[in-house]
Amino acid sequence: MENESLKKVFFHSPTYGSLSFQQVFEKIIEFVKEAPERKYSLIVGSDSFPGEETVFVTAIIIHRRGSGGRYFYRKLKYEKMDNLKLRIFTEASLSLEIAEALKKKLSENGVSKLPVEIHLDVGKNGATRNIVKEVIKMIVGSGYVAVTKPDSFGASKVADRHTN
Asked: Cα-flanking dihedrals φ and ψ of residue 119, to 5°?
């Protein structure tokens, strides 16, 4: 059964337009089946932009290592959130929600070997350096690989591209 909160949220794709979570999942499986012998990473990353309201973007990327990939993103608006720590933990929570839903669908469909990584918009330099360890523990403690800057392109490049 699909996560209730994901039933009402649509994802957007530069390739396919507006899709439900179920359709996103189907597109990921189709993409992997095009070249099943290749290695893949399934990446979830979130970023936010604080304005009049805070915009959170969560991206799902299926990366065929060495030859590109596809991505899908959803945009959620929350009331203005000035607290950086709260924003970062909200980003991590949104990524975890999507990662959990993907992992569940993957196991239901017999493709649970596809590893899910969570890309975090935090790094050892800059404003987030004081909370990096806490956020990594949250992700790793939930059973996922946590990737931080400068390698976390799922959050810092893909999701970030759609925050405005």
From this structure: -95, 130
